[in-house]
Write a structure and sequence with these properties.
globular, 3 helices, five-stranded antiparallel β-sheet
Length: about 260
């Protein structure tokens, strides 16, 4: 009988958001346990090796990490398998670069460079609001943080803007119709739009209807909706394409037009 947690991950079983080629070997990097689920995370090693091309192989990634060059959410991380996830800020001080982990319209993790000012905060979705010992109110966020004494108006599914250095809440964005959101899972992952309405289904998944800036309407589960701005003003910079999904024909015309 195997003992303990699994230590391997086959390449074909890895999340499609990692964009791994099928013939690049049998195995890939299994993320360590950390603030994000395996299916919704991207290990540092894949970011440095496959995305930024700063390393040719895993050995070089380990060398980079062990030199204490990589900061995630303002914390030095030396584990090359550490799972980064949606909205995490990666800083490489030696090159002066800041990145935010974010999805493109096809639901794949991309390299999204941000300014130093934007790297000071991140958005976190509220997963639970509870009361602890001695009646201390606290909340859990999507990236595994526990924040005590939040604003009493904050509810589950809202998003809080967290100052990375102090871990304090700077601002809250209500989950409300008319607010801008990004989809973090399902077939619409990476799309950005305005929340139109929410259907409640007892005992099943609540469905949210969303309209993007082109007027396309789509629906997704409530659990996949991550609010990123009040009205139509996002709190974070959006990647190229601004989260607008093109049809196959539009993509083709754009490609041909670009040549």
């Amino acid at each position: 009988m195997p003992r303990g947690p699994k230590k391997h991950l086959k390449r074909l079983a890895a999340p499609s958001s990692w964009m791994l080629d099928k013939l690049g070997g049998v195995f890939t990097i299994k993320p360590s346990s950390g603030p994000h689920k395996q299916g919704e995370s991207l290990p540092i090693a894949l970011f440095l090796r496959n995305r930024l091309k700063y390393a040719l192989n895993m050995k070089e990634v380990e060398t980079i990490c062990k030199q204490r060059l990589i900061k995630i959410d303002n914390k030095l991380r030396t584990d090359p398998r550490f799972p980064t996830g949606f909205m995490d800020v990666i800083q490489i001080e030696k090159t002066g670069e800041n990145f935010r982990i974010i999805y493109d319209v096809k639901g794949r993790f991309i390299v999204h460079r941000i300014t130093a000012a934007e790297a000071k905060y991140k958005l976190c979705r509220v997963r639970e609001v509870k009361t602890g010992p001695k009646n201390v109110p606290y909340l859990y966020t999507s990236d595994g943080r526990t924040i005590r004494y939040p604003d009493p108006a904050v509810r589950v599914h809202d998003v809080v803007q967290v100052d990375i250095a102090t871990g304090k809440i700077q601002d809250t964005i209500r989950f409300d119709t008319g607010n801008l959101c990004m989809i973090t899972g399902g077939a619409n992952a990476g799309r950005v739009g305005t929340i139109m309405s929410r259907e409640r289904h007892q005992g099943s998944f609540d469905i949210v209807h969303i309209k993007d800036s082109q007027g396309h309407v789509f629906a997704t589960r409530l659990g996949y909706v991550f609010v990123i701005g009040k009205g139509n003003k996002p709190y974070i910079s959006l990647p190229k394409g601004k989260g607008i999904k093109l049809t196959i024909a539009e993509e083709r015309d754009k490609r041909l037009g670009g040549k």
